[in-house]
Amino acid sequence: MREGPKTDARVLPADGQEWPLVRERLQALRDLDVSPELGRLNIYCHQGTEQLATVRDEAARVFAHSNAFLSKYLDGSRQVESEVRRMVVEILRGGPDAQTFLTTGGTESIFCAIHAAREWSRVERPTPGVPEVILPYSGHAAFDKACHYLGMKIVRVPVRPDYRADVAAMAAAITPNTVAIVGSAPCWPYGTIDPIPDLAKLALEHNLWMHIDACVGGFVNPWLERLGYELPGFDFRVPGVRSMSADLHKHGYAAKPCSTVTFSSRELERYHFVPVDNWPDGEYKTTGFVGSRPMSSVATAWAVLQVLGEQGYLDLTRRCMETKAALVRGIESIADFRCLDNDSTMVYFRSESLDMLTVIGGMADRGYFPFGVFNPVMLQLVAEPVEPAVIDSYLRDLRQVADGVADGTITSTSIARYS
Ligand SMILES: Cc1ncc(COP(=O)(O)O)c(C=O)c1O
């Protein structure tokens, strides 16, 4: 761990300090993070292009002091937000009756969807015991958190050898307490899209709530499909899907925090909202779980959607997939690395002969921040529309690390942990 510049920031200074000095220290602290060049394929992913970075900076500044909590009362903020919501419904193929709400991230979107499923089940599918949510082993950890907070039980079902949901096993896990089924499009640990149409069919047959977690894929799957990639159903065109989580702050290229939860019909809204009016300030109704939230990131989503348009998203997606192809080619030419077949912009690789934890450790020592998967142990990258030089230097470092692990000169092990 590297040491930062010495500040007394743990203690509120007795006297205020000059902003230029404070800014300098803040920037020095930021520089302790992964360098932007080395982080482009992992920690600084979903940035898009330099032009988009400028758009985000400037759009955020326009609404820097606005609270999106108040957007329904303020004409400008309301229009920005409602235009983003309409564009999102269209991108996710939600149809005229679908409703999108803006949230602060995939975790909040998932929480809102699972909360709505629970409320819906109380009316439409009462359970004898604790309501259960069935999801593939590969589903995001946010579902465990949501179920914990909501007093529900999570049932994770092993995935198939190709790392996609095992529909038969999920069917076998249904009990009288089951209220919802989840599929990812794609999941984070493997980049695979679950067989959403089959899961939705199962949900329809058993009168269950079907949620698609498209936090990663919501704003890339539609363009991949248009570019000719074969994907299983992944959006509201699939009958039986009631809700979707989709992150504007991932492949939507908005600034964080900005995500969406979408319901297939206005009728389901009543299971989403938690209106409060028994306190001194009268009616209190928010669009998600949180109260205050930044209008600045919503403004970046609005601006990026306008600046890119369909053509811009198609071009960026094509460039991400070109990066992915170059990475896969290069990685598979080193040692015995093999990449996982998946449906996303993500690259995962492992080795039969080299200890992957040591490979990950070697890359971390070189200043990278390697996302790692534990089961099986793999290194994960997110393909970005980067210059070929970024890919070349990554591959050069990886080759040297692989050689070092093979000849025993690299021994430190590491893995990026989410704790
Ligand atoms: C598939 C998936 N779902 C949900 C999330 C949670 O999103 P957030 O970190 O924005 O809360 C992530 C984050 O990577 C994800 O990949």
From TrEMBL:
Q: Which UniProt keywords apply?
A: Lyase, Pyridoxal phosphate
Note the SUPFAM superfamilies from the entry.
Answer: PLP-dependent transferases
The organism's superkingdom is given as Bacteria
Residues forming coiled coils: none
The record's section on Gene3D superfamilies has: Aspartate Aminotransferase, domain 1 (3.90.1150.10), Type I PLP-dependent aspartate aminotransferase-like (Major domain) (3.40.640.10)
Q: What are the required cofactors?
A: pyridoxal 5'-phosphate
The answer, when asked if DNA damage is one of the entry's keywords, is no
Spell out the family assignment given in the record's similarity comment. Answer: Belongs to the group II decarboxylase family. Sphingosine-1-phosphate lyase subfamily.
Q: What is this protein called?
A: Pyridoxal phosphate-dependent decarboxylase family protein
Q: Which organism is it from?
A: Nocardia rhizosphaerae
Lineage from the top down? Bacteria, Bacillati, Actinomycetota, Actinomycetes, Mycobacteriales
